[in-house]
């Protein structure tokens, strides 16, 4: 019984230990890396917006044909 309780209590300790090691190894990106990330995110937003626009552009006429021109 004590061994089971010890194993249960060990899981959060290991999690906190691993998490603190991860945070300590992390570092802030430099300006060049930050700009590259911003460009990638911006490009993703533009592509997803364009895809959404195309889907909506196709959906409206198809929906009007199916519904009957309401």
TrEMBL record:
Quick one: signal sequence residues? none
Where in the cell? Endoplasmic reticulum membrane
Q: Biological process GO annotation list?
A: intracellular protein transport; protein targeting
**One Pfam family from the UniProt entry?**
SecE
Q: Which UniProt keywords apply?
A: Endoplasmic reticulum, Membrane, Protein transport, Translocation, Transmembrane, Transmembrane helix, Transport
- Gene Ontology CC terms, in alphabetical order: endoplasmic reticulum membrane
Which Gene3D superfamilies does the record associate with it?
Preprotein translocase SecE subunit
Q: TM segments? A: 37-55
Membrane-protein topology: Single-pass membrane protein
Which terms in the Gene Ontology molecular function aspect does this entry carry? protein transmembrane transporter activity
Report the domain of life of the source organism.
Answer: Eukaryota
Protein family per UniProt: Belongs to the SecE/SEC61-gamma family.
Q: Which NCBIfam families match?
A: secE_euk_arch
Protein name per UniProt: Uncharacterized protein
Species assigned in the record: Diplogelasinospora grovesii
């Amino acid at each position: 019984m004590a061994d089971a309780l010890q194993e249960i209590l060990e899981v959060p300790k290991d999690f906190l230990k691993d998490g603190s090691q991860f945070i300590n190894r992390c570092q802030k990106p430099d300006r060049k890396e930050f700009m590259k990330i911003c460009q990638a995110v911006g490009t993703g937003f533009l592509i997803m917006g364009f895809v959404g626009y195309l889907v909506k552009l196709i959906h409206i006429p198809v929906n009007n044909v199916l519904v009957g021109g309401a």
